[in-house]
Amino acid sequence: MPEYFHSVTLDRDKCKGCTNCIKGCPTEAIRVRDGKAVIIEERCIDCGECIRVCPNRAKAALTEGLKDIARFQRPIALIPPSFYGQFPPQVSPGSIAAALQAIGFARVVEVGLAAEYVTEAVVKYVKEHRTPRPLISSACPAVIRLIQVRFPSLADLIIRVEAPIEVAAVIAREGEEGEGMFFISPCPAKVTSIKQPVGRASSGLDGALSMAEVFGQILPVVRRVEPLPGYPQASRIGTSWGRSGGEREGVAGRSLAVHGIHHVIKIFELIEQGGLTDYEFIEAQSCPAGCVGGCLTVENPFVAETNLRYIASTYPRGWGQRPKVADEVLRLVKPITPRKIWQLDDDAARAMAKLLLLQETEKELPGLDCGSCGSPSCRTLAEDIVRGRASINDCIFNLRERVRRLAEEMVDLAGKLPPAMAGGEGETIDPK
Fold first, then answer.
1. pLDDT tens-digit series, residues 237-287
2. Less Cβ crowding at N or C end of the chain, within 10 Å?
3. Considering the domain boundaries, does residue 253 fall inside one?
4. Residue 57 belongs to what domain range?
5. 9, 8, 104, 107: which is closest to 65 by C-alpha?
6. Are 185 and 208 in contact (CB under 8 A)?
C-alpha cells in the first residue's frame, strides 16, 4: 500500500468518539474504535469536512507556521483571491500586500494572476477535446482525490491543466538566492496537494500557511500600513476564481458550477449514470461557496463570497501585457489514477468469496445506518467485519438481540435440575 501524506490530523486526547465525523465524511474514511476516531489513510481526501463538524476540535490541519518562513532569505507569499474575501471591501489589496510584507514576506504575488493563464488553458482544452463530456475542472485538489476514491470512472474527464497555485509558483520565482514560496491556504486539501501532488511529479511550492493564522497576524496592521502600489495584479476573471462560479465565468459554452462536497457527489453520481453530457464544463469545488468557504478561513463563506464579488467587480474585465508562460507549465504531466480502496483481496477468488460474505453479513444488520457501531453505515460495518476490522457484535441492535436470547436461555436454564438431583430428570422448578 502506498504511503499517504495527510494534512488533516487527529488529536486523540480531544476526541470524544461522538461519531459526528463518520457521518459527515464523503469517502467513509473515518471509524470510531475504542471511543476514538480512526482515519483510514487511503480513503481520506483531506477535504476538511471532519474539521467543520467536530464539536471538540479534535481534527485540525497540519500547516507551516509563520516561523517557518524564516528558513528562507526571501520568503514569498502567494495569496489566493479567497484571502481578499476575508476582509471588507474597504481593505484594499495593496494594504493586504503591505501588511504581509510587514510580518516578514519579501514579496507578495496574487494567485489570481496565474488563474488567468489557467483560464486560457482550460478554454483551449475544452475546445480541443470535444469528447467525452462533461469535462471536470482540475483546480480543486479535494475534488480530484474524491474522483480517485469514489468515482474512478470519471478520471478521464479531468481537464489536464495545472492548478493556479502551481502556475503562480512559477510566475513568482525570479531566480534570486533564498527564495521560498508559501501559499496562504484556505483548506487542508491544498496543503496536501503541495506535500503530495497528484498529476505532477513535485510541487513548486515550499509550504503552505493557514489562512486563519495569517489573517490574525496581519489584522492589527492592515489598516495602518501604506498600500503597496501595483495591486491588484490580477483581473476580474482571475480574482473571481476564489468563489463558486468564478472559474466558470471565464469558460465559454454550456457549463455548470457546483460547490460543497456532498453536492459535488450528487453531480458526479449523475455523470456516472450517463447524465449531463450536454454540458461542456463542470466547475466543482468541495468547500461551500468555493475557496472562500474553506475550513481554514475566518469569515462566513457567504459574506466572504459577497466581499470578493464586489472586489472583483472593481477590477478590469480583461488583462493587459503579461509575461508568457510555457505550455508545459500549464499541463498536468502525470496520469491521475484511481485508488484501489474497494478491493477486498488481491486474489480474485478470495475477493469474490469475501464479497459474498459481505453481502450475507449486511443482511444480518438492521439497515438503519445509525453509526453507533463506529462505522458510517451498515454496509461499511459489513465491509469492516469482512476485513477483520470489526465484529458483528459492534452493532448495538445485534448485540441487544443476542443479550435478549442469552437472558431467555438463562431463565430457562435456571428452571431446570440435573438428573442426579432430587426431583428426577427433566423436572423444572419455579425460578422465583
1. 999 999 999 999 988 789 999 999 999 999 999 999 999 999 999 999 999
2. C
3. yes
4. 8-61
5. 104
6. yes
pTM: 0.89
User: What is the domain-level CATH number for residue 385?
Assistant: 1.10.15.40
Residues 59 and 179: their CA atoms lie apart, in Å, by 32
Q: Contact at 8 Å (CB) between 207 and 182? A: yes
- How many Cα atoms within 13 Å fall on the side-chain side of residue 290? 28
Judgement on whether residues 24 and 83 belong to the same structural domain of the protein: no
Cis peptide before 232 (omega within 30 of 0): yes
Q: For residue 401, which phi and psi values (nearest 5 degrees)?
A: -65, -40
Q: Residue 54: give its domain's CATH number.
A: 3.30.70.20
Domain termination site, one of 41, 61, 81: 61
Contact 104, 66 (CB under 8 A): yes
**Locus of grid cell 479535494:** 142
53-100 pLDDT, tens digit each:
999 999 999 999 999 999 999 999 999 999 999 999 999 999 999 999
Residue that has been written with the C-alpha cell 425460578 in this structure: 431
For residue 387, give the C-alpha cell.
Answer: 476485513
Q: Count the domains in the chain.
A: 3
- Which single residue is written with the C-alpha cell 432430587? 422
